[in-house]
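Quick illustration, no need to memorize.
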Amino acid sequence: MPRYLIERNFAEQLNVTKDVATAVTQVNADAGIQWLTSFLSADKKKTYCLYEAPNPEAIRQAARRLNLPADHDCRAR
C-alpha cells in the first residue's frame, strides 16, 4: 500500500490523551488507513505523520472526521 507523509499545523500545543488516541485509531481503521509514526516539533504545534493509505484523500477524510488539520501531504517513497 502507498505511504504518505502528512504535515499538520496546530494553533495550540498538541496534547494527546488516551481517549483521543483511541478515537484516532478507530477512525483510521474505518477509513482503511494505517498510522505508522509521527514526529512532533519542539514547540508541539506541528506534526509530520507517516501513513499507509490507498490515497491521500482517505487520510484527509479521516482528519476531517476527527477535526484535525491535514495541511500538506506528499507520497513517501
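The first helix runs from residue 18 to 31.
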